[in-house]
Amino acid sequence: MTTPTTLDPGQARTRLHELTVIDVRTPGEYAGGHIPGALNIPLDQLDGAMADIRSAAQRGEVLVVCASGARSENACRMLSENGIHTATLSGGTDAWAAQGHDLQRPRGAAKAKWAMERQVRLVAGSLVLTGLLLGLFVHPAFQLLSAGVASGLVFSALTNTCGMAVVLGKLPYNRSRQCDLDSARARLRNS
Predict the structure, then answer these.
(1) CA–CA dist 121, 66 (Å, integer)
(2) Among 52, 118, 142, 159, which is 20 to 30 Å from 69 by CA?
(3) Where are the alpha helices (DSSP H) in the chain?
(4) 179 is catalytic
(5) Alpha-carbon span 72 to 90, nearest angstrom
(6) In degrees rounded to 5, what are phi and psi of residue 76?
């Protein structure tokens, strides 16, 4: 039987013991809570683990997760282009937690970080509001800031990518814990 393209949280939970779960969120998001047993391989480091993911996929089914499902869909598409069949978790870890399933947190992990999607909404909304206020009270040209952010959001929706999330992922807040890519790759080889 082949893995469907998408698993809902209930399906994933019942099959968790037979799946290799790869979490493509930032190390900070992963530390805030992840599906039990998930390996953290951030989306921007997926290329470096491609051979090990391929090896794991040949031995069993691979489930790719993120916060809401958008990054994991991108990861699945990227892996598929490299001949690796994977599935994504519908709704991501947000849906997993919303259905009452436990999230695992590393020992000594700091308080939960905001999800990347929430951070993007905060920054985008703040920039739009700032552009509008500066446009009203300082100079109308500042409204171009709001227009630029709006254009970026439309582009993000149309391409299912998010440049702002990539930039925010590089901030110290989101990189407080480094991803142990070597350990994740070793676990993929031995799973």
Answers:
(1) 17
(2) 52
(3) 9-15, 27-31, 50-59, 70-81, 92-98, 116-137, 143-159, 163-169, 181-190
(4) no
(5) 9
(6) -60, -40
Residue 47: C-alpha distances to residues 59, 84, 115 (Å): 20, 12, 23
3-53 pLDDT tens trace: 448 999 999 999 999 999 999 998 878 888 899 999 999 988 999 899 999
Residue 20's CB is within 10 A of a number of other CB atoms, namely 21
Residue among 66, 76, 162, 179 flagged as catalytic: 66
CB atoms within 10 A of CB 19: 24
Rounded to a whole number of angstroms, the CA Rg of the chain reads 18
User: Based on the number of CB atoms within 10 Å of its own CB, is 142 exposed (0-12), middle (13-18) or buried (19 or more)?
Assistant: middle
**Strand, coil or helix: 76:** helix
Q: What is the pTM for the complete model shown?
A: 0.70
CB neighbour burial string for 86-124, b if at least 16 within 10 angstroms, e if fewer: bbbbbbbbbbbbeeebeeeeeeebeeebbbbbebbeeeb
For 87, the token pair is 């599935």
| CB atoms inside a 10 Å sphere around CB 133 | 13
Residues 6+ apart with CB under 8 A from 53: 22, 41, 46, 62, 79, 84, 86, 188
